[in-house]
Amino acid sequence: MKFLTTHLLTLLLTGVLLPAAAQPTSSFKSSKPQSTERYDTGYDTRKHITIAVTRYTEAHAALTGFIRARALRLHKQEEAPEQLIADFGLATGDLARLDSLAGALGMVLENNLNTYDLTPQQQNLRAEEQSLTQQLTGLNEDLGAATGKEKKDFRAQIDIAKNRLLVVREQMADLAGHTGQTYVTLRLFDEVSFPTGNHRVSFVNMPGVEYGMLRLDNPQSGLTSQAYQGYAIKYLFTRGKSYLNLGVYKPQIKQEGAKFVDELFIINFGQDFYPRNFGRGRRRYLNLYSSYQMGGFILNRQGGEKNEFIPNLNLGLGVELLKTRHILIDTKGSYFIPLHQKSRELRGLLGQASFNFVF
Fold it and tell me: Among 58, 59, 145, 186, which one is least packed by beta carbons within 10 Å?
C-alpha cells in the first residue's frame, strides 16, 4: 500500500508541477495575444500586425491570397463586414514579405514582434517524458506481482501515465515542428467603417517658435498697413497635431495717425490633419496637411484708443519640410478671417513657418 501511495503522489506532482510556459527574452514591443484559444504556445516567435486601409476589398484579396500562398498553417480566420482577423503560422523568412505588403496596402497601426525562449519548456518536457517512462516500467512490474484490488489500482495508474505521456510527446512534437516559424495575428479593417479602430491621442511636449507674415487684401490708408509680420510661441502638445499660438505682429510700414493699427496680439488654437492618400504624415520630408486655427487677436491702435478683442478663423494648407522624432520644421499658408464687422479691413493671406523640438 505504501508503494501504491508513493506512485500516486509522483503522478500528481508530475502533472501539477509541469514547467511554466516560455518567458519572453527579447521583444520590440510587448503585446498580449488577442485570441482566447491558445494556438501559439509552440512558437518561439509571435507577431501582431494591424492594418487600416481605405480600399478594403483590394487589401482583403491581397492578404488572403498571401495567406493561402505562404501560410504554413491557418489556425483561425474570422470575418465581419469590412474587417478580417487571421491567426496563422508563417516561415520566419517570409516576415519581410508580409511587412512590405502591409505597408503598400495602407497604414500599419501596430507591428509588434516578440521572441520567446522555449528551451526550459523543452527540457522540462524531456525530463517528464523520462520520468513517466520510468514510472510505467515500475508500474508494469508491480502489476505483475499484484493481486486482487491492487491489480485494478495499478491498471488505473498505468492508464493515467500513458495518457499523460501521450500529451507530453505531442507537445514535444509541436515544439519541434514549429522551429523557424512565426505565429502571426493579423487584423485588417476598413478605416472608413471603423474610424475609431485604433486612434489614440498621443501627447507630446514640443515648444517652438513661429514666424508669420499677414498681407491684407484691403489695407486702409491711415488705418492699417499693407502687411504685418512678427513672431509667436507655438506649443505643440499632441502628435496629431494640436497646438497653441501666442504672438505679436507689427506693421511692415508704420504710418502716423491715432487710429492706425500698430499691433496685433494673436492668441490661437490650431490643428493640422494629414490626408489619407498622401502618406498620412509618415514621411520624413514633405508631408502635406490641411489646417485650421481659431481664437482671436487684440487690436492695439497707435493713439492708445480702447483695445478690441476680435475673434478670427484661419483655414489653410501646409507642408512639413522635415520631421524626425525630435524636431519639426514646417510652413503653411492660410486665409486670415476676422469674425467682426471690420473683416474687410483686416482679412488677408497669412504665411507661417515654424520650428518645434522635443523638450
Answer: 145
